[in-house]
Amino acid sequence: MRRVHSFSAALAAATAILAGAAAVVAPAVDAPGRPPASPALSYDLVAETGQAPDPTTYASGLPWSDGGFFGHSATKARDFATWRGAPVDNVVAYTTRTTWSAELNNWWASSVPAGFDPARDDFILSVPLWTDDGMAGGDQGWKELGRQIAAVDPNGLVRLGWEMNCCFSHATNVAQWRKQFSRAVNLMRSTAPGLQIVFNPNEGAAQNGTVSAIESLYVKGKVDIIALDAYDWWAPFTTQANINSHFTKKYGWNYWYKFARARGLPFALAEFSVSSAAAGSGGDNPKFFDATYSWLSAKAKSDPGSIRFVSLFDEGASYCGCAISSSQNPKAAKAYRSRILGLRHP
Questions:
Q1: Tens-digit pLDDT profile for residues 298-346
Q2: For the chain, which residues make up each domain, given as ranges?
Q3: 2-21+38-343 topology per CATH
Q4: Spatial separation of the C-alpha atoms in residues 312 and 66, rounded to whole Å
Q5: Considering the entire predicted model, what is its pTM?
Q6: Which single residue of 20, 99, 129, 301 could bond 50 by disulfide (Cβ 3.0 to 4.6 Å)?
């Protein structure tokens, strides 16, 4: 089983191709109990967000669903939750995208821990609109995929054609892409009506010959959440000027947040982390997580409920260097954990 994933269009151009092998799927394990809050918190939930959410809403106690990608391993998801001191609310997975036969192998269903509660937690599956061999999939195949996702989480989230403005999305024709997006949504929802569809570009302008007007790919009435994939890459989050540029540029964080809210939809940060393997990154950069969670908190404070989910990309492979729960990025890890603990509802 292989998944091909790109976390930055610019990095993809620099390295020609980014690929990672899917981790061996581990048996499901019990989710951890909620550990006590740290007594030395630097941040206060009410002060930062203006809200104190019911802790039963999300297991983490955060004002949004907060989890991540953990190498398709239920064990790693459990260990990550223990390490950070808060349960994970969501688990991100990827289908095998090589062929439609591989696409319909639901090995990814074992990514969630045994304590996963589909009524509370989020299973988030990343699904290409075309497989790598260019196939659009038959009607029955899309219907079956909907059933498979719903078997894990009846109202699961689908990052359909994610990172459509770069990499491997096949988004080179607006009409064709919109037609396939609508078709896939309709067919999956015919067997799994509760699925939530995520429109999920990568931060920044279009790359690799994809449609330049990224917003034109959005299909009204077929999307439930607008999300963004964003990493600590050029320009690195090492100065305030660089940080501001990520938030304020066209197709940056503020752009897609405003795009979502203008359409009455919530926003999500579907992939994010440091990327210390990249020469253009900030390396083991704690400022990235400080900036990220300050931005999220500000949005949640000014517009409660506007942040739907946040998913860390905890990937230690050499192409990425994105893991923080290991010794790979200890400074960034410390900043991340401090922010999580500080935002938790006690």
A1: 999 999 999 999 999 999 999 999 999 878 999 999 999 999 999 997 6
A2: 2-21+38-343
A3: TIM Barrel (3.20.20)
A4: 8
A5: 0.86
A6: 301
